[in-house]
Design brief:
38% of the residues lie in helices and 21% in strands. The protein is α+β, with helices and mostly antiparallel strands. It folds into two domains: 2-74, OB fold (Dihydrolipoamide Acetyltransferase, E2P) (Beta Barrel); 77-238, de novo design (two linked rop proteins), CATH 1.20.1440.120. The protein has a five-stranded mixed β-barrel with strand order 1-2-3-5-4. A hairpin with a 2-residue loop joins strand 2 (18-25) and strand 3 (28-34). The structure holds zinc ion. Zinc ion (ZN) binds at residues 149, 151-152, 154, 168-169, 171-172.
Length: 240
């Protein structure tokens, strides 16, 4: 018997009453079959809710079957807040989409747990959503350069360019590029370099928040053609 610890980030129906859950773990994504999980009498009903952090046992070759398990954290504080649910679903879609990518899953897993705790306990949690999105670009190998011109390494007269993937000097700034306020870029770079073990001393006003939201969306769209379904739900809730 094998044991796994992870967060349920997706599930699909399997045959009449069973389902397959997708668990994001420290070694990547794994799928487990849960027999009878859709029955109201199933002992696994509560265990297999989306976004539960669980510890489970499973047997079998190929697609393994869950045999027992416990909930380590059900993130009630997130699930009871519609906005938080939409934001976290957006992050979950990102993780799901790039779960096959070759990166350090242990590192991402630890980071995800920390971020979920912060989102749970914090009132101004949107900072942590943005932090996840900007740091995740590093895992994916397309982090923006916040230090110097991406073309010539110059460090003065810099402006941020999505297309170029970071700062550009006036000579190398691309044409027809959308401009962002210096405040948004500085805030984003602070979030990018933030050490999770330190307190986060950043407040984001609404105008800056909207601009950062827009920048992250554009960056993911331009470099990865990524757009989440949850982002559309969020637009409906937030109005931007
Ligand atoms: Zn340059």
């Amino acid at each position: 018997m094998d044991s796994y610890e992870g967060i349920i980030i997706k599930q699909i129906s399997y045959k009449e009453s069973s389902k397959i859950i997708y668990l994001y773990t420290s070694s990547g994504l794994i799928s487990l079959l849960v027999h009878g999980a859709k029955k109201l009498s199933s002992p696994y009903l509560r265990l297999t809710e989306n976004l539960n952090l669980i510890k489970v046992f499973a047997t079998g070759k190929g697609l393994k079957t869950l045999t027992d398990g416990e909930v380590l954290n059900d993130y009630t504080a997130i699930k009871s807040d519609l906005d938080k649910v939409a934001y976290v679903s957006h992050l979950v879609e990102l993780i799901m989409t790039y779960s096959e990518s070759e990166y350090d899953h242990q590192k991402l897993y630890d980071f995800v747990l920390k971020i979920l705790d912060k989102i749970s306990e914090s009132k101004s949690y949107i900072r942590y959503i943005y932090m996840f999105e900007i740091k995740y670009l590093y895992m994916l190998g397309i982090a923006p350069n916040f230090k110097r011109c991406v073309v010539c390494n110059k460090t003065d007269s810099l402006r941020f360019s999505i297309k170029s993937g970071g700062y550009c000097c006036s000579e190398h700034y691309p044409e027809n590029e959308k401009t962002y306020s210096e405040n948004s870029i500085l805030t984003l770079s602070k979030l990018y370099y933030h050490d999770m073990n330190q307190p986060l001393d950043i407040t984001i006003d609404q105008a800056t928040g909207i601009e950062i939201r827009n920048l992250l969306d554009e960056y993911y769209l331009y470099h990865l053609s990524f757009q989440s379904k949850s982002r559309k739900v969020l637009s409906g809730l937030l109005g931007y």
